[in-house]
Structures are given as C-alpha cells and as structure tokens.
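pinging the channel bc i need a second pair of eyes. not urgent but kinda urgent?? the chain im working w is below, pasted from the shared doc
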Amino acid sequence: MTVMLGVAAVHPAASQGLSQGPGGEKAIEGIVGDSDIRQEKTTASAEEKRVLAAIDKTADNISIVRKLTAARQVDIVFLADAVPAEGGPPPAIERKLKEHRSDVLVLRQEVEGNALLFHAVDSKRVMMKDILAVEFPDPETVIVYAASRPAG
C-alpha cells in the first residue's frame, strides 16, 4: 500500500486511475462499451411464453452469461405485475421458477459476476433477486426479465 501511494505521489496520472475506482463512470463506460442498454415495461402475463421458455433454458444460459463479454444490445424487461406487491409472478411462472430454483439462483450470481450485465441491470436499478430469467434471441442481444418496476 505504501509503495502504491508513493508512486501515485510521484506520478499524478497514476492517482487518476486509483481515484476512479471500479464503479467510476469511465470504468463503467469501458465495461458497457457500445452496448445499447434499453428498458421496456410490460406484464408477465403478456410475456409469459417467452419467460417460461427462458426459465427452461436457464441451465444453458448460465454458461452463456459466464462467457459474455460484449453485446450489441441489452434489454431490461420490467414485468410490473410480477412484483411481490402485485402478488408475484403468475402461477405458471412461479411454478417454473420453483422447478428451476437452484439454476435461477446460479444465474443471478452469474449476472452479478458479469461486469457487462451487472452494470446494465444496475443502471436500471434492478436488484439481482428480481431477475427471473435471461434470454439470448441472437448472439449479440440479451434480454433480462425482472419482476420489478422501472425507477422513477
């Protein structure tokens, strides 16, 4: 630690990197890059088939999330009617989540550990516990389904 501070004192440019920190704007821009982070508000009822299919693919999607370093587009889909205050997800989705409970927990951990997805989700104020599923409609697009409402 003392050596690091000594170098920063001698080289002011070195201290800029230290003060930036992993959550700084430049660091986040470097991680998210040219990815287009979008949000959509809909209902779990309207997206039920897609969410169910994504939950069924959770085990496969965990591997994709682990390897993901870039995406052209990340869509955060807010399923406002699936929040606990509204009674939670529809029964079919709730059953599917229970069926794949351990995989869904691992998926959430992998999203949290993936710098790109973490910052995309965090930028829209989605908590990891609210992520229901992740879908990859093509190799450059990620859709994150969340039982949440948009901030604001």
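so The mean pLDDT is 85. and The first helix runs from residue 2 to 10. — does that match what u expected or am i reading it wrong
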